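Quick illustration, no need to memorize.
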Amino acid sequence: MTTTWPVRPLDLADEEVAAAVHRIGRAAYAVEAELIGFDGIPALHESLADLRGRPLQWRGAVGADGEIGGFVAWEREADGTVCVDRLCVDPARFRLGIASLLLRHLLAELPPRVPVTVTTGAANAPAVALYERLRFVRGADFSPAPGLVMASFALAPRTADST
């Protein structure tokens, strides 16, 4: 049986939603930490209060059972660029297309002329492949901390029919 994952806004003021997002984020970032060999990822160590205090917009893939399978969160920069802050999928639900679904939904929700950026650990091959598959262009790698190399990606403004 194929599970569908409708995407809807997530309200982190809701205790149950916030707890699920926090749990999924920590589990997903633990997998990334293992992949990239760096456990200092800030989101891996943030408290629930810190998570809720971030000025982000949230969308989640929510199963028929009400369970959140994954989420995407972003913010708009002063220049109008949308910066994807995090894209996390519950590790128990990896390889179901949830990350692609969430990113495609976000891109469809944005006006086509808005540039979009995202970063991930350079050694996180599944995330790198996802962004490249969705036509993000890899920019320069950078190292914000010793032992950590990040890959930056940008999606140029699109035409209305290119999402």
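The CA atoms of residues 140 and 152 lie 6 Å apart.
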